[in-house]
Write a structure and sequence with these properties.
With 353 residues, the chain is of the alpha+beta class. The protein has twelve helices and twelve strands. The chain folds into two domains: 154 residues, PurM-like, N-terminal domain (60s Ribosomal Protein L30, Chain: A); 175 residues, Phosphoribosyl-aminoimidazole Synthetase, Chain A, domain 2 (Alpha-Beta Complex), CATH 3.90.650.10. The strands form three sheets. Strands 8-10-7-11-9-12 form a six-stranded mixed sheet. A four-stranded mixed sheet has the order 3-6-4-5, with helices on one face. It is globular and about 80 Å long.
Length: 353
């Protein structure tokens, strides 16, 4: 029988080393209601087990293909740390995950999160998870479980990083992608009112946010502060894509989520080698924050569209005969949408006009 040494109280403790079991227990209690608020009918049980259970609806999907994605929020978290505000970055995390899945035509089912901290602050964790739960509710995605890791002695006490993993499903044969894009397709764009969660390393380098200047106007004459602008949460596009698929079926051909790599680097991912995407830059509004970054950093136009979404958060290739109806469907789903270009014969390039 294994036995421990007979050493009494007063020695080294886990808390002394940098991990508080009590704070962990409090954090779990704080987030339980937020997690429960995201549950779907397929969720079995609640948090606290060694894994999450989700019953796939095989009546709805007769030949299901599971689709998975992993992502984080990036250095937008540094802005959240400076502002000591974590209520929006959880929404961003969900958007980065589920909107990638939407590009495959998948319905997101459930999500797991991973939060690493230097020292666990239960109130801060609750604020973060409340945002994740809000994003999950918007995307009809269950927050099935996750992990919070306290890295005392490795990370600084106020350091925090967060990542997520989402699983979705699409009926085999109904996947979106380059194979379905055709010459003459129309490109429908979804507006992005801010930076989303991409390009923040360049944005922070140029704008140099500090705890003090985050309270200043985002640009001369702005009605919002720099902090509010940089922490503006992502629009979640998944419900609009799913609504378009439900209404127009195979007339929806492909979708590109404009994340790292900007407009040019992401739209090209949905093009076959024989076709070009021609996008009119004046067909959508570019929010002022992008111009402020460009002015302060003297950033070239080519670099801007290679790094940022510049106001265009997603591009969907659709059959020309449903283009206007697809725009209306997206708007009905709560997303500002517009026609931004066309697909034509070419060599697999994105042409900005």
């Amino acid at each position: 029988m294994s036995r421990l040494l007979p050493i009494g109280a007063g020695g080294a403790t886990y808390a002394d080393a940098g991990v508080s079991i009590e704070a962990g227990d409090e954090a779990v209690e704080r987030i339980k209601a937020h997690v429960a608020s995201t549950a779907r009918a397929e969720v079995l049980g609640g948090i606290g087990g060694f894994g999450g259970l989700f019953a796939l609806n095989t009546a709805k999907y007769t030949n299901p293909v599971l689709v998975a994605s992993a992502d984080g929020v990036g250095t937008k978290l540094e802005v959240a740390r400076l502002a000591n505000r974590y209520d929006t970055v959880g929404i961003d995390l969900v958007a980065m995950l589920v909107d990638d899945l939407a590009c495959l035509g998948a319905e997101p089912l459930f999500m797991l999160d991973y939060v690493a901290v230097g020292a666990l602050d239960p109130a801060r964790l609750e604020e973060l998870v409340s945002g994740i739960a809000e994003g999950c509710r918007r995307a009809n995605t269950a927050l099935l479980g996750g992990e919070t890791a306290e890295h005392g002695g490795v990370m600084k006490p106020d350091d925090l990083d967060v990542a997520g993993f989402v699983v979705g499903v699409v009926e085999k044969g109904l996947e979106l992608g380059p194979d379905h894009v055709r010459d003459g397709d129309v490109l429908v764009g979804f507006a992005s009112p801010g930076l989303r969660s991409n390009g923040y390393t360049l944005a922070r380098s140029v704008l140099a946010p500090t705890a003090e200047n985050l309270n200043e106007p985002a640009w001369e004459g702005a009605a919002v502060t720099l902090g509010d602008e940089l922490l503006r949460p992502c629009v979640i596009y998944t419900p609009a894509v799913n609504a378009m698929l439900a209404a127009h079926g195979r007339a929806i051909h492909a979708a590109a989520h404009i994340t790292g790599g900007g407009i040019v680097g992401n739209v090209v991912r949905v093009l076959p080698n024989s076709l070009d995407a021609v996008i009119a830059m004046d067909s959508f509004e570019t929010p002022e924050i992008f111009f402020e970054i460009q002015r302060r950093g003297q950033v070239s136009a080519d670099e801007m569209v290679r790094v940022f979404n510049c106001g265009l958060g997603m591009v969907v290739a659709v059959s020309a005969d449903v283009a206007d109806a697809a725009v209306a469907t997206a708007r009905d789903a709560g997303v500002e949408a517009m026609i931004v270009g066309t697909v034509q014969a070419g060599s697999g390039k994105v042409v900005l006009s």
